[in-house]
Each structure stands twice: as C-alpha cells, then as structure tokens.
Write a structure and sequence with these properties.
The complex is a heterodimer.
Chain A: H1 18-30, H2 35-61, H3 76-87, H4 89-100, H5 107-130, H6 157-190, H7 194-204, H8 211-244, H9 256-282, H10 291-322, H11 325-336, H12 340-352, H13 360-363, H14 366-393, H15 408-431, H16 437-443
Helix pairs in contact in A: 1-16, 2-15, 3-5, 3-9, 3-14, 4-5, 4-8, 4-9, 5-6, 5-15, 6-7, 6-8, 8-9, 9-10, 9-14, 10-11, 11-12, 12-14
Chain B: H1 2-6, H2 22-25, H3 29-36, H4 58-76, E1 101-106, E2 115-121, E3 124-130, H5 143-152, E4 162-165, E5 168-171, H6 174-187, E6 192-198, H7 203-215, E7 219-224, H8 230-240, E8 255-259, H9 270-278, E9 281-282, E10 287-288, E11 290-295, H10 300-303, E12 307-310, H11 316-330, H12 343-349, H13 354-366, E13 371-375, H14 381-393, H15 415-426, E14 430-436, H16 440-443, H17 450-454, E15 459-464, E16 476-479, E17 488-493, E18 496-500, H18 513-521, H19 532-545, H20 555-565, E19 567-569, E20 597-603, H21 616-619, E21 628-629, E22 634-636, H22 638-644, E23 650-656, E24 659-667, E25 675-680, E26 712-724, E27 728-729, H23 744-747, E28 753-755, H24 756-761, H25 765-768, E29 788-793, H26 802-810, H27 818-822, E30 831-838, E31 843-850, H28 859-863, E32 869-871, E33 877-879, H29 889-892, E34 900-901, H30 906-909, H31 920-923, E35 936-937, H32 943-955, H33 968-972, E36 978-982, H34 989-994, E37 999-1000, E38 1012-1015, E39 1017-1019
Parallel strand pairs in B: 6-7, 6-14, 8-11, 8-13, 11-12, 14-15, 15-16, 20-25, 22-24, 28-39, 29-38
Antiparallel strand pairs in B: 1-2, 2-3, 4-5, 4-16, 9-10, 17-18, 18-19, 20-26, 21-27, 22-25, 23-24, 23-26, 29-36, 30-31, 32-33, 34-35, 37-38
The chains are: A mainly alpha, B alpha/beta.
C-alpha cells in the first residue's frame, strides 16, 4: 500500500460538501421515527421498567432483597456505580483532552461520546443514591446548614464521591451544551416547524454565526475543555479512593487511582465503539464516523487495556513484596478462590482479547471489533465486581468469610441501568444532532484555508 | 342603644360617602339597626329542645354537627381496649419510673433450678440474670434461662382454656373445664387417673400431689425426663448399694478424663461445673488442670480438651478396663481384678495416638487422688461401674463432694411403668390422663405406643403454656402460668431450697399449674382464687420448712427474707461414706469390634429436650461447635461421609430396626468414624410458628429397649437418601484441604496461644516476641478520665454462647430466621468464632468471642460520610442510629466484621411479622433503641448501663468508676472470662487484665488500637511437647 504520509488523511470521507454534512446529520431530526426506532425504544424502556420495578420493591421491603450481606456490604450496587462512572470517561476525554491536543478526528465522535458520558453519569449517580439503607435520608450526604448543626464527614471518600461525581456531571453537561449552541442555531435556521423553531431558538441563545460569536465560543470551549480535563482524571481517582482509603486488603492499594483512570478510559472507549458502530450504520454516518475513527479508538483501547493488565500484575507483585499475609491471601484467593471464575473472566476479557487489536485488520473489522469491545465491557464490569466483592468476601477474620450470590433484584437493577442508558441514548439520536455539525464542517475538506486557495489534495 | 343609630359619625358614614340605596343614603333607621346587629334574629339563640327543631340556630347546628361527627369518629375508630394498664398518676409502691426492680426467683427451664434475678421495669420483666447469692449458680444463668423471658411474652401462649370439638380447639372458660374435669375425676373410682409429668423438684408440689392421691385414690404418677442420669445412678447403686452419684469437686481436679461426657456443655449441672472447672484454668493463680476427653462426637467439652481421643461409645468399657489393667501392671493401683485387656493393643486396633495414652497413664498415676474420671450420662451401666471402680482404686473419691448431694425428689419412673400404662389403657382401665406441663407424645419412644394409646382415652387433659404435640391429643388444654408468673419452691440439692415468685400478673387468662390441681382437689371450680397456691405454699413452708430453723424470727419475717433472697440454706446431714461393693464387678463383652454404625442421641445445646424449641433467640444461637443454627443434623466424620458417598447437606437415612429418619449430613471434624451424632429437641409439630418444622425429629429413633443405652444405639444402618437439605451456619465450613487457608487465625494473630510450660518458665513469653508500638504523625487523643475497655480470658472462655443470648436480650437484637442466616445476615452483636487447626481427623479447636473492639483508631469512623459513627471521650465507638443512612462502608472497613446491618425490618420480615406482635413491645429493654430498617448497629459496650452508672455517680456526687458497670455478656459469662472496666485507673482490678502478661490485641498489626484485650489461651500440654 502506498500511503502519502506528507498529507493528513481526510477526517471526513466521501468528499461531502458542507451542505451535505448538515443534511446528513440533521436528517434524523427532520424525519419521523420509523418502526425500528420504536422497537429499539420499547426494548430499552422495558429494561428500564424492570429496573424501576426492582427499585420500587427494594425501596418498599429494604435492601434485603439484594444479595448483599455480612461481610459483603457492597456488591452490584457499587459495582454498577463504578462501571457507569467508568463508561462516562470516554466522552470528556474525547471532547476535552483530545480537543486540547488538537486531535481533529475527535470531531466526528465527540458529541455522541459526550452524550454517552452524561447518560452514563446519570446511571452511575443513581446507584450511590439507592444503595443506602435509608435512601430517603440521602440528603444527609450533602453539607447543608441545618438546625441540628450536623455536618458531613469530610474524611470519608464517599463524601468526596458526592462532590466529584456531581461536579463531573455539571461540567460535562455545560461543556456539552456549549458545543451544541451553534448546532441549535443551524437547526433553528433549517426547520419550518414553529414549535421546533421556538425550542431551538431558546436553546441557541440568539446565536447568529457571527465572527464575534465564534470568537467567544471558541474561547469558552477552550476554557471549559481546560476545566474538564483534570476532571477526567480526578473523578475516577476519587472513585478509586472509595476503595484505596479503606484498610481492606485488596482495596488498600496505592496503584488504584491511575489504574482506575486507565480502566475507565478503556471501558468508556469500548462502550463508545459499541454504540457508534450501530449509530454510523443506522444513520448513514460512515463518512463522518469513518473506519479511521474506529481504528484510532481501538488503538486507545489496546493501550489502556495493557495499562490495566500491567496494574493487575503490579497488584500481585506488591502484595507479595509487601509481605502482608492478609493482602497476599486476598490476591491468591482472587485468582484461585471461590470467585476465580470472575477473576479469569476479567483477565481474559480485559487483557487477553484486546491484544488482537495489534493487528490492523482486526482493528478495522467491524465484527471482530464488536466482539472485542463487548468483551471489554463485560470484563470491565467484572473488574469492579472482582475488586469489590472478592476483597470483601474473605478479609481478615476467617470466621466472618462469606459468599455473595446476586438475586433477581440485583440483576433487575443492572438491566434497569442499561435500560435507562439506552433509553436516553435512543431518545438523544432523534432529538439532537448526534454529530457536531459545526465542528465537522470545520474539519471537512476545503473548510480550512490553504495556500492552494482551494481544496486540499485536489 | 337607639342613640347609636343616630350617630352618623361612627361606623355608618365612611368618607367618601358611598351609598347603595336611598335607605342607606338617608340613614333609614331599620337599616341601621340591621347593620348594627351582626347576626339576624334567632341566629344566636340557645338551643331549646322543647321548641321546634327548625328553631335551631346556625351556630348551634354547626356545633352539634361537629360534636356528633367527633363522637361518630371516636366511636367508629379501631381503638382497642388495651386491657389493664398501669397508670402512674398514683404511683404503685416499689415502682419508680425509669428504675429497674430486681426480684429473686428460680428458673424452671431445666432441672438445675438455678436461682435467678428478674429485672423488671415499670412492672414488666425484661431481663433475667443469675442470682449472685444462690449457692449453686452464683449469679450465672445459661442461654436457655436468659431466653426464657421470650417464652413469657410468646404471643402464641394459650390464652384461655381450650376444648376440643371434632378436632378443632375452641376457647372456653375455666369454670366449664374445671367442673367437667372434677366430674370425670370424681367418677374414676375404679379406673386409674394417670398423671404424667417431667421430674418434679418442688417439695410443695409433691405434697400437693400426695394430697391429690388421697382425694382421688386411683391416681398414679408417672415422671419422665428425656435426658436423665438414671444409668449413672443405677451404676452407683450397684457399686455402693445406695444413694446417687455425688457431685464432683471440679475445682480440685488436676487431671480430668471425660468419657463421652459433655459436662461443660449440656449437663444439668453445667453452670456450676464450668465455674469450678475454670477455677483450675487460672493464669493468675497459675493453676491449670489437664483435660483428657475420649469421645465419639466433637462436643463442647472435647473442644476444650488438652488431649482428645476418638473412642466410640461401645469401646469405652474396653478403654477404661485397659487403663485399669495398665495402671495395675505399673503398680499404681492394687486391684485384685484382672480383665485381661491390653491397652496398647486396643490403641493399635482403633488407631489411637499412643503418646497420648502414655501421657494419660502417667498423669493418672502422678495425680492419684487429684484426678477424676467422669463418664457421660449416655454411656452404659458397665462403663459407669468400671469408672467408679477406677476412681475408687485411684483414690479419686476424694473429689466426690461429701457435704452436699443431689436431691431427686420425684425421681423418674421406669420405662416399664409407661409400658404398663399403655397396657392399662388398652384394657380400658384408665379413666383420665393428665399431662402436667409435659410432652410425652413427642418425648416417649414411639415403640411404647403411647401416642396410639391415648387416642383411646377420651379424657385427656393437658396443662401447658403453649400448644405442642401432646395437646393435639387432649380433650381440654389448660393454659398455665409461665415461670415468671408463678409461685414455687425447688429442692435439687441437700441443704438448699429455692423459691420462685411471680414478677408479673398473668398476661393471659392462665392459671398456675398447682392452683389448677388445688381447685380439682377441692372438688369445686369455685374453690379457685388467685392466691390459692400462694397460700398453700406458704402454709407448707410454715408447717414443714420453717420448723427446721430454730430461729427467733417469726414466720412472716422468715418467709419474706426467703423470698427476698430467693432461696434458703440450712444444715442437712447427708450420708457421705459409701463402701465399694466388689461383687458388682462383672463385665460381659468387653472387647467389641463393630463395623456398623453407632448412633448417639444428644441433648441440644440450646433447646434442651425441645422445651425451648419455640424460642427464636435459642434457635438462632449458633451451635457451639458446628455454628449451625435452626436445625439439627447428623454429624459424621469426613471418612464416614466419603464412605457413604455423601457431602455436606446431603440427606441420609438412619435406620434402627424399623425406625427410620431422614436427616441432612454435617461433616464434623474430629468425629469418630462410623458414628452418627444427632441432637434431639428438633422436628416439633404443631408447636408454634418458630418451632414447627425446624430440624428433624430424631426422637423417632428412640426405643424402649436399646442394645446399649437409651441414647446410644449400635448396629445402625445408614444409607444415602436422595435429596438435599441446606443447613444454615454462621461460619463458613472450614476447608482442611487448602494450605493457604490453614491456621490463618494464628498467622494473622487473631488468636494467640501458648502452652502452660512456656508461661510457667517465662510469664512474659508473649510480650518478648511482640512488635514495638507504631509511631503516629498525629498526637493521639488523650483520654484523661475513665476510658472503657474489656478483657476476655480465652483460658476461661469455653465457647458456650451464653453471653450471646444475654446480649440479645439486653440489646433488643431481633431474630432473623434461617433464610437470613443462610445469607450471612445474622444480627447478633457478639459472636463466638471457632477456628480449627490440624487435620480433620484430629482438629485443634480455638474459640474467641468477637464483638466490637471499640478501636481508638477505628477504621469505621473515618469512612462514614454522615458522621453517624463517632468516638466518645470515654473511648467508646458509638453509633448514632438517627443519623445513619446505611452506606455500609463502616462494615466493609471493619476488620473484625462485627457490624450488623438491618437489611430488612427483621422484626417484620421474620415469620410474617411475628416479632411485631404488640406483646413483644413489653419484652424490649426500654433503655435501648429498637433499630429500624437500613441502619447499621453493633456492640455498644452496653452504653445504657454506662449511662445509668454515670447518672448514679452524678447523683452521689462522684466520678464514675470502671467497676460500676458490668456489661450483659460479662454478667452472663458462667466462667467470668469477660472483664470490663476503666483502662486508665491503675487501682482497679480491670487494670491488671488490661495490661496482662498474656494480653494481646486481635489483629494488632493493623495498629487500630482496640480496647478489647484477649488473654492468650494456654494449652496444658505436656512439657515434652511444648
């Protein structure tokens, strides 16, 4: 193959004109949803309902409906929380960090990834709220002035979680919305429907595509990107503190913050690939979300997967090196104890299968990619399961060892969280442009000024 | 008034002068008048019922409407009459609100009849403790006695007399049943009135029964106990001609050999036994006994053995005679008997540890006269005779108590008498059967045919607190008072009579058992009065007991002081010197080799003979050895399980002749091969929502004729049965196969042990190897005043679990049920951890009570996001239930896993809200919050008692002292292993235990500075081994 490395490969394929891009992205918003859409939506909503019923019954009877016990105080509830927070990492990474690094390819996928971030954080935020024994008193976790003069405990990582996740959600939402403003304006200008026009007008905040607007917009976007970047790293760091700050062998580990962040990006990218593969097909966005995009994301998955693999190995090394009997036991027990099955699912899904991405052919093959990213999603869920449950089930005193078996309600809530996520995703595809129109236009061929005075690579 | 109308300037002339009509404009007089009177005429008139109702004023109408609505609302509301309530506007004498009263009484839970103190608050009993002055139990009381309070408030108690009509019980009244029964009894002139009871220890009740017989001369009494010492006593009789087996001076025994005897676990005298026994496990007095146990199933006693031998019951005789022969050979004893038993061949044949036998022989020779060989009640008469002989020859009769003997007032009837009764029923010679608070349908061996027989008797009367198997076959079921609602006297020892007095009015329409009999005796239902038995008892004491006291005290003073103390003691001469009769010595079949299975039926540790089966606290109390709750099971050894091809929870079928039982298997490390150990007391039918269907009724395997003893059966067939039955254990099954899981309790310094030899040669041997204190970057908090701490002496802790139940009662701990125990959600704040080390054939057992350690640097505290768990300035780790949202992070971060989470409202969840029954509100300790769903809880070091002591101290104008407080577990511990007090005060006794040479902290390496000190267990193994 003869590749000309002196020129950048085009970000948007198929030599789309600017109007075509706009047409393509806006099409789902202009057309009525079809039958397939409703089938997909009903599946997602059914899953959501399963979760809602499980949640309702859990509220009514108590957490006893779940499999949690003594010593396993946290199980699916916290596993799901960490899992969804992890999923929520790709979006901001793509939109903020890659933006600052001037990675133009991000434009095609940033909007969708950011949306997924917000939905994932909604799913994640749900679990800490419902996992408490008395969820109606969750307000106690907020530091609000009250007549009891009671304050929260700032030494508790759970409290840091409350701040970290809510900050992350707020910043992501604002960042997402700022990016949407020019697109709202575009949509406003396109539509003939009065209702839509009103709504788009409100949300476009009077955007008129003027140079001054663009100048302010670019500044604001840059600043928010700069603001969001540390959050990408901090959120999962703080989530990892939930474990690392404790004294439980298997949790009390200094490697957790970087390990959790790498794992989060790993799982987030896997989830984005999983969804994008469908989205680009269904909405004919193959030219905007190209194979190059997927290829690049798979490279990130490969890289972060190996970081995660390194962390797995390092944990074992440190456990041995520390000479702490209880810690050594926990790690050997993870690999060979009653939960060995979970451990080996985790290792094979997260470390072994992603190695296939060393091959360009596999990176660019949709079926192979689908299988691997779904395995990564499974593997990363199990990673959180392994960390949470296997550390708890056999800790210091052998007298209080136990075993955790999830109940139907645990699965119901897990399914429900997926239902919530996909319901939001499906609604999103029909209500907002899934690709940033303005940003893609900016990186389309011919959009950039060039000294040839015309099209690059013409 | 009229002047006002003209006064334009007042109310009627606003400015500008708007007007609505000319009348108004010109100030028409009528209009002005109307304006001046706010209400129309008649509106405000009083109601006059004589006039027409339409003359009712609007106000009156509204008032009446409101009143009638209010009356209707009140009348139709579901307000229920709560019965007799105590109004404190006129304060009853004795009762001070918020202050408990204690009454001395006697526990009738078993035949030990321990003295108890019942704590009552505002007139309701809430806790039972031992009576500290009582000579037998000295302030201690077992788990059953503690939990007895739950039986008092059991909502399923029979609430009024029941009459059976077409197999359905309906409530009736006392007069009706009394009249009918008196009629039946009076007409039974030629037919027998069979009266069946458990053993009776009450002199007054027995006198009453004697009188009963004079009134109804055809009466015949039958006494039985499912577990009894009849075999031991008959052996004694054969050896010594008279008397009963004596009490043992355990506190003087330096070497103990227990043969299939659980004298520390279930024996009747257990509370006294363990107290005396642990006086010889005293690290401070440096007194150590050595306990050898030879048994088939691992028992609580075996768990505490220094050396344990696995010997099947049918081989015990050969073992004892082997010892005798060997000691004779060595010249330690001089015996004319020669049984030709070679001990070392025996050892080889049964693959015993020869070293241990040698040690045993040496110890028995060295400690002649200071050792005791003690055979279990279930062993055969021959073994008991051999043991009596050996003790006699070794001079161990020194350890028999000479001053006091057991009393056996009613005795028990021979099994043949029950057979005779059945025969009489068949021949229609029985007019009526009266069951006095007993359950023979459940207890008697089925092959006696009692259950079938009583269906042929029309007039079966059962006096019982709750429904049971026997009630189902009765025409009338008469509800009787609970122990705490009753009067009574009990004599189980010479020289002591205990008294019981009611501490609460009967909660339901029940009568005291003796009062019912007295009514019948007087042949009139009208004869009953509330204090009929009280008067009878008092009179009996005046006539028969008071004269034994040659005191100047008048009877009333004597009586009240006896009631106050709960017992009286007096000088009573007992025959103490018995001559051994050598002619009793004759043994057949000494050497038995048996390849089939042997079945041992044992008393349940928590349920007794099944009497306490309807008690949730006891059902949920983990078995001291297996940690299984809510079930009995067939305990077998690992080899036997392999041989049968069964795993844990598989069902097996145990059959003896035509008697069969299917029961799940539990693999008990340390059991002898080919023996099956099953506990009785389970598998109850029609006995309340707690008891019914829990476990398996192994009484079905009992027979009137056994080839060994009533509780041990040889030649038992065992086969695997289809199916599984899951047993609920509070501890995971110990895995002996995986090396990395072995001995973790030692590797992690959870349990620290040493040997007596090590200790005697260097009392500081533990501290020497201990790591030095970690340094902290923070300045530690300074506890300047009292700081609470606990110490637990693992030498004295036998692992019985009495403390667990005491804690449950004191702290309102709910019962969660088997399904929740299976999910590891038991709520007990205090648990006894049991660890095995060694091999499954010969495990070494360590026990450790585990409760909140109240760490100075508590890991639970800093992770709670809402500050619901905090540290107090007196060193307590506290829970604020109101603030807890239930994240469970504290529990995850607790290395001891002592925190308990309310996954449900367990009171509501267990057995459809059984514990939400209003009567249980009376049971709860008012000083302790009843925790709601979703809240974390744990041991508080009995903070309510600390608070009480503190307010007492404030009242007395002094500072609170460590010795002011005793925790519930400490009070209950029959061996005084638990000590509680002030860590900071060097002048208190507790200071010594806190800073003991053998003291250690569990998981000390974590540096979380626990406030519970464990005193390391010393195993009294031989010097050459340690």
């Amino acid at each position: 193959m003869n590749i000309d490395y002196s020129k950048e490969a085009p970000v948007v394929a198929g030599r789309l004109s600017l109007a075509e891009i706009e047409e393509l992205v806006a099409k789902p918003l202009d057309t009525k949803p079809d039958r397939k859409y409703f089938i997909a939506l009903s599946i997602a909503v059914s899953a959501l309902m399963i979760g809602a019923i499980s949640l309702g019954l859990s509220f009514y009877w108590g957490l006893g409906l779940w499999g949690n016990n003594q010593p396993i105080g946290w199980a699916f509830d916290i596993v799901n929380f960490v899992f969804w927070v992890g999923i929520g990492h790709a979006g901001t990474l793509i939109s903020a960090i890659l933006f600052l690094l001037r990675q133009k390819w991000r434009t095609g996928i940033a909007r969708f990834a950011e949306a997924m971030t917000i939905f994932a954080v909604i799913c994640a935020g749900l679990f800490p709220a419902i996992h408490t024994g008395r969820p109606w008193l969750d307000g106690y976790l907020l530091p609000y002035p009250n007549q009891h003069s009671l304050w929260v405990n700032f030494t508790s990582p759970l409290l840091w979680d409350v701040f970290a996740v809510s900050t992350y959600f707020t910043v992501s939402l604002v960042f997402w919305y700022i990016g949407l403003i020019p697109d709202f304006a575009t949509l406003r200008d396109r539509t003939n429907s009065k209702i839509k026009k009103t709504i788009y007008s409100i949300f476009s905040l009077g955007w008129r595509h003027s140079s001054r607007h663009w100048q302010h917009y670019e500044k604001a976007y840059m600043l928010l990107a700069g603001f969001a970047t540390p959050l990408v790293l901090s959120v999962h760091t703080i989530v990892s503190f939930d474990f690392a700050v404790s004294i439980l062998p298997g949790w009390h580990t200094t490697i957790f913050p970087p390990y959790f962040v790498a794992g989060a990006i790993f799982s987030g990218f896997a989830m984005v690939v999983t969804v994008l593969v469908f989205v680009r097909k269904v909405f004919n966005l193959e030219n905007i979300i190209t194979m190059d995009h997927l290829d690049k994301m798979n490279k990130v998955i490969l890289a972060t997967g190996m970081m995660v693999g390194y962390a797995y190995g390092m944990e074992f090394f440190i456990a041995w090196y520390s000479g702490v009997q209880a810690e050594q036991f926990v790690f050997v027990n993870r690999a060979f104890g009653p939960y060995a099955w979970a451990y080996w699912i985790m290792v094979s899904c997260n470390v072994i299968f992603p190695q296939l991405f060393w091959f360009r052919k596999f990176r660019r093959s949709i079926p192979v990619m689908m299988v691997i990213v779904i395995l990564v999603n499974v593997g990363m869920w199990f990673e959180r399961f392994v960390i949470t449950v296997t550390s708890l089930h056999r800790d210091f005193l052998p007298s209080s060892w136990g075993y955790y078996v999830p109940t139907l309600y645990d699965f119901g809530l897990l399914i429900g969280s997926f239902g919530l996520f996909f319901t939001l995703v499906i609604l999103f595809t029909k209500t907002l442009p899934v690709v940033s129109i303005s940003e893609v236009k900016a990186v389309a061929e011919g959009a950039q000024p060039s000294h040839h005075g015309g099209v690059v690579n013409a | 008034m009229s002047e006002n109308f003209d006064n334009k300037s007042s109310i009627n002339n606003p400015d500008p002068n708007y007007w609505r009509s000319f009348k108004e404009l010109y100030n028409d007089r009528d209009l002005l008048e109307k304006k001046f009177n706010e209400f129309e005429n008649g509106v405000t008139d009083d109601f006059d019922p004589n006039t027409n109702l339409s003359g009712l004023s609007r106000r009156k109408f509204l008032a009446l409407l409101g009143a009638s609505a209010a009356f209707a609302g009140v009348a139709c509301s579901d307000y229920r009459d709560k019965g007799e309530i105590v109004a404190y506007n006129i304060k009853p004498e004795e009762v001070t609100i918020g202050k408990p009263n204690y009454y001395a009484s006697t526990c009738t839970g078993c035949n030990s009849n321990c003295g108890i103190l019942i704590k009552t608050r505002e007139g309701r009993p809430i806790k039972v403790d031992g009576n500290p002055e009582h000579p037998i139990n000295q302030g201690k009381i077992c788990a059953k006695g503690q939990a007895n309070i739950l039986n008092l408030y059991n909502p399923e108690r029979i609430k009024s007399p029941l009459r059976k009509n077409y197999n359905i019980f309906s409530e009736t009244n006392w007069q009706y049943v009394d009249d009918n029964i008196i009629n039946v009894l009076s007409n039974a002139t030629d037919k027998e009135i069979a009266i069946i009871s458990n053993k009776i220890n009450s002199p007054t009740t027995l006198k009453l029964l004697d009188e009963f017989k004079t009134v109804y001369p055809t009466s015949k009494f039958y006494f039985y106990e499912l577990f009894n010492d009849s075999v031991r006593n008959s052996a004694w009789n054969k050896c010594y001609g008279e008397g009963t087996f004596p009490l043992i001076k355990w506190d003087e025994a330096e070497v103990i050999l227990a043969l299939e005897s659980d004298f520390l676990g279930v024996d009747e005298n257990r509370i006294e036994n363990v107290r005396l026994f642990t006086q010889m496990r005293d690290v401070d007095a440096k007194k150590f006994n050595r306990l050898y146990v030879a048994e088939a199933g691992l028992s609580l006693t075996g768990m505490n053995a220094d050396y344990r031998l696995k010997i099947r019951p049918e081989n015990q005789l050969e073992f004892v005679l082997g010892l005798l022969t060997e000691l004779n050979k060595k010249g330690v004893i001089k015996s004319s008997f020669n049984f030709n038993v070679n001990l070392f061949e025996f050892v080889k044949k049964f693959n015993l540890d020869e070293k241990r036998i040698k040690y045993l022989l040496e110890d028995l020779s060295e400690k002649k006269g200071k050792s005791i060989i003690y055979a279990g009640e279930s062993l055969s008469e021959e073994v008991h005779i051999a043991v009596n002989l050996l003790n006699e020859l070794l001079g161990n009769t020194n350890l028999y108590r000479k001053d006091i003997r057991k009393e056996n007032l009613s005795g028990i009837s021979d099994i043949t008498e029950f057979e005779g009764l059945v025969e009489k029923i068949k021949n229609n010679k029985v007019a009526a059967i009266i069951h006095l608070n007993c359950n023979p349908v459940y207890h008697l061996p089925e092959d006696i045919g009692y259950k079938e027989a009583i269906t042929k008797v029309e007039d079966v009367f059962t006096l019982s607190e709750t429904m049971n198997e026997t009630c189902q076959f009765s025409k009338y079921v008469l509800p009787i008072n609970h122990n705490f609602e009753s009067w009574g006297d009990y004599k189980v020892r010479t020289g002591t009579i205990s008294l019981s007095q009611p501490v609460i009015m009967p909660i339901y329409n029940t009568r005291q058992l003796e009062a019912i009999l007295l009514t019948w005796l007087k042949k009139s239902s009208q004869a009953y009065s509330d204090n009929i038995y009280h008067d009878y008892l008092k009179l009996n004491w005046q006539d028969n007991i008071y004269p034994k006291f040659s005191q100047s005290l008048n009877f009333d003073k004597f009586w009240y002081s006896a009631l106050h103390n709960g017992f009286i003691t007096f000088q009573e001469d007992v025959k103490s010197n018995f001559a051994f009769k050598n002619d009793s010595i004759k043994f057949d079949n000494v050497s038995v080799s048996n390849n089939s299975f042997t079945l041992l039926l044992k008393e349940s540790y928590s349920l007794g003979d099944g009497r306490f089966a309807n008690n949730g606290w006891l059902q949920e109390l983990p078995h001291p050895v297996s940690k299984i709750t809510w079930d009995n099971y067939a305990a077998v050894s690992l080899n036997t399980a392999k041989q049968l091809g069964v795993k844990e929870n598989d069902l097996i079928e145990v059959s003896i002749e035509n008697r069969k039982l299917r029961i799940p298997v539990f693999i008990q490390p340390g059991n002898a091969d080919n023996t099956i150990v099953i506990e009785l007391g389970y598998g109850r039918e029609n006995s309340g929502v707690i008891a019914t269907g829990v476990g398996f009724n192994a009484n079905k395997l009992l027979s009137k004729k056994s080839n060994y003893s009533p509780w041990i059966y040889t030649n038992v067939k065992v086969v695997k049965a289809p199916g599984k039955y899951i047993l609920a254990s509070t501890q995971e099954h110990h895995n002996f196969d995986i090396p990395r899981e072995q001995d973790l309790h030692f590797k992690r310094d959870i349990v620290v042990e040493g040997t007596v030899t090590q200790y005697l040669s260097n009392p500081n041997f533990l501290k020497d190897e201990h790591h030095k204190e970690h340094e902290s970057v923070y300045k530690p908090f300074e506890y300047t005043e009292v700081k609470w701490g606990m110490s637990i002496d693992l030498n004295k802790c036998l692992g019985c679990g009495d403390c667990v139940v005491a804690c449950n009662v004191e702290n309102n701990v709910p019962v969660v049920g088997k399904d929740q125990v299976l999910k590891s959600r038991e709520m007990q704040w205090l648990r006894i951890d049991r660890y095995y080390s060694g091999s499954p054939d010969d495990p070494k057992v360590s026990t450790q009570p585990m409760l909140c350690q109240h760490c100075d640097l508590a890991p639970c505290e800093n992770v709670c996001p809402v500050v619901a768990t905090t540290h107090s300035p007196d060193g307590l780790n506290q829970m604020t239930y109101n603030r807890c949202v239930g994240t469970r992070y504290c529990s995850n971060n607790c290395p001891y896993k002592v925190r308990r989470f309310n996954f449900y409202n367990f009171r509501d969840h267990f057995r459809n809200g059984y514990q939400e029954n209003p009567v249980f509100a009376l049971l709860n300790n008012p000083e302790v919050t009843v925790r709601s769903r979703g809240v974390m809880e744990k041991c508080t070091f009995c903070i309510q008692r600390i608070s009480e002591a503190r307010s007492e101290a404030i009242r007395e104008g002094r500072k609170v002292r460590g010795s002011d407080v005793k925790t519930a577990c400490q009070e209950a511990c029959p061996t005084n292993a638990i000590k509680f007090g002030d860590i900071n005060n060097p002048n208190e006794e507790f200071y010594h235990y806190r800073n003991h040479q053998l003291g250690y902290y569990s998981l000390a390496e974590l540096n979380i500075k626990p406030n519970v000190t464990y005193i390391a267990k010393l195993r009294n193994i031989r010097t050459e081994e340690s």
